[in-house]
Recover the amino acids of this structure.
């Protein structure tokens, strides 16, 4: 037995069925709330992490007794928000590049978190005013190395464009794991 149903009719039937089974579209207010950065959604949590970040000091000297890894750059202060706990640490800059407003940043996390966190929501905080500059996903590559790849504003591209791995970075980091993201 052969049914000669046109493909167009079959596709229309499938579309109608998918529309009837689909959940309702989210309301505009919910979409706007979800688009807000986390520091606006949870300002008290953000303020707490920024205050903690501001208290962290790193002593960095050129004359060290142990030979250091020549691949690492200037240490950057960081606070990790993982499973409701805050951990003060620093990251070593491995790669820093801005080309055509594309920001590529690789770092080695000095704190060992077990089990390793596959990704962090990374918020770059200005060292001057401790205000958020940008935020993006840092994905784990090997060991405790993470990479961030973001589009940045023209202003940030001009300001950071000449920085090298070995330069003092004009930012600090807040690294938030998935469990912290879901809980504020």
């Amino acid at each position: 037995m052969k049914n000669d149903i046109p493909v167009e009719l079959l596709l229309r039937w499938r579309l109608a069925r998918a529309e009837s089974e689909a959940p309702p579209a989210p309301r505009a207010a919910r979409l706007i709330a979800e688009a807000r950065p986390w520091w606006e959604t949870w300002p008290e949590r953000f303020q707490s992490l920024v205050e903690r970040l501001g208290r962290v000091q790193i002593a960095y000297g050129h004359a060290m007794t142990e030979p250091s890894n020549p691949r690492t750059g200037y240490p950057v202060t960081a606070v990790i928000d993982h499973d409701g706990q805050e951990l003060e640490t620093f990251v070593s800059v491995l790669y820093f590049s801005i080309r055509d407003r594309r920001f590529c940043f690789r770092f080695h996390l000095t704190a060992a978190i077990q089990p390793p966190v596959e990704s962090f929501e990374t918020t770059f905080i200005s060292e001057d005013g401790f205000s958020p500059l940008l935020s993006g996903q840092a994905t784990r590559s090997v060991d405790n190395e993470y990479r961030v790849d973001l589009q940045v504003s023209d202003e940030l591209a001009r300001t950071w464009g000449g920085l090298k791995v070995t330069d003092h970075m004009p930012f600090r980091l807040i690294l938030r794991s998935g469990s912290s993201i879901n809980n504020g």
